[in-house]
Automatic annotation (TrEMBL):
InterPro entries per UniProt: HcpB-like (IPR040239), Sel1-like (IPR006597), TPR-like_helical_dom_sf (IPR011990), Znf_RING (IPR001841), Znf_RING/FYVE/PHD (IPR013083)
GO molecular function, one term: zinc ion binding
Similarity section: Belongs to the hcp beta-lactamase family.
Domain annotation RING-type: ranges: 55-99
Annotated protein name in UniProt: RING-type domain-containing protein
Any one Gene Ontology cellular component term annotated for this protein: cytoplasm
Organism name: Thalassiosira oceanica
Domain of life: Eukaryota
Entry keyword set: Metal-binding, Repeat, Zinc, Zinc-finger
SMART domains: SEL1
Lineage of the species this protein comes from: Eukaryota, Sar, Stramenopiles, Ochrophyta, Bacillariophyta
């Protein structure tokens, strides 16, 4: 018995073609779903960004480049450079969102650990990152970082799934495990993580699964991911995507970029304001 990644039914092996039987569950489709053109659950979910990806001040989607936003541990919020820049222009040097004074390293750790104890997934993930990087006076501890990442992932945090996926793909700090990498990447993708869609598309392309690669890239391109749009364009030039595919990706990309734009963000970028 194998589970179909489209209808999610547990079906006997005879319900799948030889090609589909060899695929992992998330991208396996039974013959009925293939005939009906039923889409994989992996491709149905995560096609839009969550409200959690919005700047808590201006309520616009955060830019995908993390250098264009800043994470403040006092409130566990990531806010765009535009809003931080606007606050600085008004002489505000505390947190633009919660107004808390800038804490020192010891205070930051206290804040984070208090939230971790309360079960905050963002704080748990953040503490894992500090252990992984050896920051805030902590000794680098990859095992502890993974433990915290896994706890945050269990709580549904897509960033934790992404970090775990990267670790298992690279195989530098932990033993390389592509099965685990796919598992975490797919979980992150279905939660709306944009960059991981590009990673999945690249991995599927490397496996020769060009149709799946294009589907991933179409989703992330429409969410404003530069490299994904470039992939779709190249696929179109190589005859692996249609003109309609590229046109749809381009329209979605332009719309996403517009949604992530504001006068404050533009001014901050022009003046080279980076936190």
């Amino acid at each position: 018995m194998k589970i179909c990644g489209a209808c999610e039914r547990d079906l006997p092996d005879g319900s799948y073609s030889e090609e589909q039987r060899a695929r992992r569950q998330s991208i396996r489709r039974c013959e009925e779903c293939v005939t009906a053109g039923n889409q994989l659950v992996l491709m149905k979910k995560g096609r839009t960004r969550s409200e959690k990806d919005d700047c808590p001040i201006c309520q616009l989607p955060l830019q995908l480049d993390v250098k264009r936003s800043v994470f403040n541990p006092c409130c566990m919020k990531r806010m765009c450079n535009g809003c931080v820049f606007a606050a600085r222009k008004r002489g505000m040097w505390d947190c633009p969102f919660c107004r808390a004074p800038t804490p020192d390293e010891e205070q930051v750790l206290t804040m984070i650990r208090k939230r971790v104890a309360a079960g905050d997934p963002v704080a748990t993930w953040n503490l894992g990152a500090q252990y992984f990087l050896g920051e805030y006076g902590l000794e680098k501890d990859v095992a502890r970082a993974i433990e915290l990442y896994e706890r945050a992932a269990e709580l549904g945090l897509k960033e934790a799934h992404f970090n775990l996926g990267v670790l298992y793909v690279n195989g530098a700090e932990v033993e390389k495990d592509m099965a685990k990498a796919f598992l975490h990447y797919e979980a992150a993708a279905m939660c709306g993580h944009v960059s991981v869609r590009f990673n999945l598309g690249t991995m599927e392309c490397n496996e020769g699964n060009y149709d799946l690669a294009l589907q991933h890239m179409m989703i992330s391109a429409k969410l404003g991911h530069d490299s994904s749009l470039s992939f779709v364009k190249a696929a179109f030039m190589d005859g692996l995507a249609t003109k309609a595919d590229y046109a749809a990706a381009l329209r979605g990309y332009q719309s996403a970029i517009e949604e992530m734009s504001s006068p404050d963000r533009a001014e901050a970028k022009t003046l080279g304001f980076v936190m």
